[in-house]
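Moderator note: this is an archived Q&A kept for reference. The question asked for a predicted structure of one protein chain; the sequence and the answer are reproduced below.
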Amino acid sequence: MDGLVVRLAKPGKLTGIVRDVGGAAQSGVTIFVRDAAGRAISASGCTSDAAGRFTYEGIAPGRITASARGSRCASVESAAVEIRSGETSQVELTVAEGTFLRVSLLGSSQDDDAQPMRARLRVLDEAGRRVDDLMSMEDVMGLLSEGFSSRERRVGPLAPGKYTLMATTLDGKDAKKSVLVEAGQGERSVKLRLK
């Protein structure tokens, strides 16, 4: 196209620290950033260092929220933080022991359970933001190496709260279920029967 000019604002940075509920710095925890609409910006490669500190670079100006996940811990979503062009904003995140949800997708009958099933699973927090798509680079690589099951998904770790699980097949079958996650549950099994 002739005459098209794209001007990009200089990005901002988010710095901060991750601590556990006792106040100890947490290293190796992945940081996730969402835009004002609640969408995850990207698969995250930003992790906290040995002192629990992190710098998430290249964020477009605007309001964002941040959260953190480790191999067994998770934080709730932060309050909104304003990112300004060329500036650095700060946030503190507190992680606690998280809970994994092992979601099994079942057919409408036992006969259907024996058939291969392809369904899209979405897990939403109380604010309607997806949490199943928050994946570190390590999570993505693990999923690729282990393979993807169309019948079972493991989501988490999740911070305490109420979550809505929704699954939909290509032929229009669906299922929805609310789950209350409490701190320190380790792993919970949830079954969704598609109808």
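Archived answer notes: The mean pLDDT is 87.
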